[in-house]
Amino acid sequence: MTHFTVTTNCKTCGSVSIEPGNLRLHLEEDPLSYFSTNCSICGRLLGGKVGTQVAMSLMSRGASIADGPFSPEILERPDTSPIDPNDVEKFQSLLETEDWFDQLEQIINAGDV
Question: Does the pTM exceed 0.70?
C-alpha cells in the first residue's frame, strides 16, 4: 500500500500534512462527510469536508470513526487567539460586579473584544 498524507490548512501554521491514522471521520450520507484532527505542528483543532468515498479509503488506511457528530464550528477560522485561563478569570471577575452588563456593553462598543 502506498504511503500518503492528507494536506489541510491550519490558521496558525499554514499547510500541514496529517497521517490518515490521525484523522477522525464524521461519516454523513453521500456525497460529503467531514474529518477532524489536530494540527501536527501546534495541536489546534482542524476539520474539513471530504468525499464519502475518499473517507472510506482513509478508513482503510487507519482513519478512525469519530465518537460524535461533526461540529461546524471547527471550520471557522477566528482571527483571535484562543481563550486562556486569564481571560476566564477576568470574565468571572466582571460578572461579580453589579454593573457587569454595562461594563460588558462598553467593552463591546469600544471594540476591545
Answer: no
